[in-house]
Amino acid sequence: MKIIVCIKQVPDTTNIRIDPETNTLIREGVESIINPFDEYALEEGIRLQEEYGGETNALSMGPPQVENALRDTLSMGIQNAYLLCDRAFAGADTLATGYTLAAGIRKLGGADIILMGRQAIDGDTGQVGPGVAENLGISHITDIRKIERVDADGTLIVQRAVEDGYVRLKTRLPVVLTVVKEINEPRLPSLKTKMQARKKEIKIWNKDDLEVDTDRLGLNGSPTWVTKIFTPPKSQRGKLFAGEKSEAVAALIKELRQAGIEPDKNRRMLENAGN
Amino acid sequence: MQGIKVIADNCTACGACEESCAYDAIHVVDGTAQIDEKCTLCGACVDACDFEAIEIHRKAFKGEDIAAFSGICLYAEHRNDRLASVVLEIIGAARALQKDLKEPISAILLGNGVKHLAEELISYGVDEVWLVDDPAIGDFCEDIQADLTTEIIREKKPAIFLGGGTVIGRSLLPRVAARVKTGLTADCTELTIDGGNRLLNQTRPAFGGNIMATILCENSRPQMATVRHKVMPEAEKIEGGHPGKILEFNHIAIPEPKIEFLEFVEDHTQTVNLVEADYIVSGGRGLEDPKNFALIEELAEAVGGAVGASRAAVDAGWISYSHQVGQTGKTVKPVIYLACGISGAIQHLAGIKSSDIIIAINNDPDAPIFDVAHFGIVGDLFEMVPEITRQIKEPL
Questions:
Q1: What's the confidence (pLDDT) of residue A237?
Q2: By the number of CB atoms within 10 A of the CB, which of A84, B90, B91, B139 ranks highest?
Q3: Nearest residue to B311 (alpha-carbon basis) of B278, B355, B342, B288
Q4: Contacts of residue B321 in chain A, CB cutoff 8 Å?
Q5: Which residues of A touch B40 (CB under 8 A)?
Q6: In chain B, what are the domains?
Q7: CB-based contact, B71 to chain A, within 8 Å
Q8: Are the C-beta atoms of residues B69 and B143 closer than 8 Å to each other?
Q9: What distance in Å separates the CA atoms of residue A167 and residue A173, rounded to the nearest whole number?
């Protein structure tokens, strides 16, 4: 089975803070990391390879330093890594990104399963997976929480997380799957895989290496553009209670009732319905 | 750097661009801003610069003839014979846009035996329902839905196409956008019409809610967006009824599905649906131990509410991911959101901001949760939470 995992290098948004004085982003100490959701995709790719055989590949698009992120995927145990790197790719929105990654996957000769995280934590769009699938003309399923099995006849059964549970779906290879973090627990690199990763070459392709229409790349191929960026307004600090527990809680509940909210309304309704 | 240029004469080396860049790609060196290869052309610095010293050059995107497109269309997601609640929120947003645009609202409705939902859509203010009602359309499957939606859009040419920021909407719309080669903005929290050029201003949070971005799709149609669930107010039914029509698209062939629906399995760990709950009691790292979630559950039960959790509590394995509230979990909009022992990381706040009332209990008065909480108790949650449960259970 041939597996391609698409990854994105992102700023670690958990460390981004807003400067309360100037209301701007504080970038200091913010590292570039592999998008956390993509780590689950990498783990799932490696597990599939361990169970069914075949090969694992990691693919990314971005500036030269993304090589570091791809090196980390090799340390985890991915076998080959490829970077699509060209100034012409810069400024891509999700439409242009899906187009370019699909061209990279075609250059790799396609795959049976293409995996990625459900969304990247910098843009939070989750749109690239379906876009890649459409550009390749194959199916996609988002929010996969479990790949139950892949059968020899090329069908597979997966579980997709939905708002109030999950659905079981059956489809055929090739397919693009985006994963949620319930799916597995990503492994840490072992000393052996780290050593192996250091020796491996990461293949870098530019736009001339791909069969692409240059009008569909990067900024030029992106119909959407950001016209304004602003920090959300800070809200007023609310009313705080402290002190002895029965007094603090009584003050809070009194305040809620004054605001017209009955915290126990639902319970009383449920009880009445039961009577 | 290709695509972006600093105009040295305008640059005052003030450093505002440096602060705005989330990719560490712009630095003031020798009295002017300089951009390196880490630049993603996101445009944050252009916006941050007060001196018009940074320019991004872009060719206009080659889209279709945009003059041929008009009207506001929405995707009418439904399940178990009912419209998804996000659909009413989208209709509310569409009606607000309609006031400025003066163009009709349409809805794409695909399913089997769903004609009554078409009537319901009209009662909320939809002018035209574009319907495919056919037994060949089973439970939601991307491939069939994407084919039908794309065909209808190509035929009817709406200028705007909106869907829910739900599992279904966020899977279907990107596929449709890639096929018709147009722009799609994910998970918008605000939609307005730009007065001058009648374009759709699409505003959404990015970087985990740290910043907001307003996005335009100028040269291709439709302008597509998914709408974050539980942010925009639901539309009310139009008093005295609303004249609308149903157009059936029976001429579009329904393809063989490539994805087969096997079964739906409900999440039984949650007695009250978190996303739809009026009352939510959430626990975080401050609970210290998974068994202390019992305190949260008791209070949730006392108010007839749902149990939520912070990412820290989920990542620690104290409670299942289906309870996670926040950017990478669920967005909620209850009447009361009670956060117990949750410090209030920006990712968590992103998921609770639309709650009517946020109450926080934390022993750290400087916890960021108190910046968004309407009410708070500074104190020990192990004392306060059982006390709230006790007082609420007390007869009036």
A1: 74
A2: B90
A3: B342
A4: 180-182
A5: 62-63, 90-91
A6: 4-56 (3.30.70.20), 66-248 (3.40.50.620), 279-393 (3.40.50.1220)
A7: no
A8: no
A9: 19
Between CA B15 and CA B5 the distance in angstroms is 16
Is the Cβ pair B214, A228 closer than 8 Å?
yes
Binned at pLDDT 50, 70 and 90, residue B164 comes out as very high
For residue A120, what are the CA distances in angstroms to A39, B110, B186, B352? 11, 30, 12, 20
Roughly how many angstroms between the first and final C-alpha of chain A, as a whole number? Answer: 59
Alpha carbon of residue B262 to chain centroid = 28
CB contact under 8 A, B259 and A170: yes
What residues are paired with A156 via a beta bridge?
A: A150, A171
Q: Is B366 on the interface with A (CB under 8 A)?
A: no
Identify the closest residue of chain A to B38 by CA–CA distance. A63
Both tokens of A96, joined, read 């242009």
Put simply, the chain B residues between 269 and 308 with a CB less than 8 A from any chain A CB are: 270, 273, 275, 278-279, 302-305
Task: Give dist(CA A116, CA A177) in Å, integer.
Answer: 7
Name the 3-class secondary structure at B155.
Answer: helix
CB proximity B391 to A under 8 Å: yes
Q: Which helix (H) or strand (E) holds B316?
A: none
Given CB atoms, is B370 within the 8 Å cutoff of chain A?
A: yes
Place of tokens 């509310």: B92
pLDDT of residue B78: 95
Does pLDDT of B197 surpass 50?
Answer: yes
End-to-end CA, chain B: 70
Residue-level length of chain A: 275
Residues of B in contact with A162 (CB under 8 A): 167, 264
- CB of A189 within 8 A of CB of A159? no
- Please report the domains of chain A, with CATH numbers, ordered by start residue: 2-221 (3.40.50.620), 245-274 (no CATH)
A126–B37 C-beta distance less than 8 A = no
Task: Answer whether A229 sits within 8 Å of B40, measured CB to CB.
Answer: no
Contact B377 A240 (CB under 8 A): yes
The identity of residue A63, as a single letter, is: P
> Do the Cβ atoms of A264 and B279 come within 8 Å?
no
Query: Which residues, at least 6 apart from B171, have a Cβ–Cβ distance to it below 8 Å?
Result: A130, A140, A141, A142, A143, B142
pLDDT digits (tens, 9 = 90+) for B328-363: 788 888 889 999 999 998 889 888 988 889 999 999
At A98, which amino acid appears? G
User: How many contacts (CB atoms, under 8 Å) link A and B?
Assistant: 338
Q: Is B362 on the interface with A (CB under 8 A)?
A: no
Chain A hits for B262, CB-CB cut-off 8 Å, are 157, 167-170
CA distances from A26 to A20, A161, A231, B369 (A): 10, 34, 12, 19
pTM for the model = 0.87
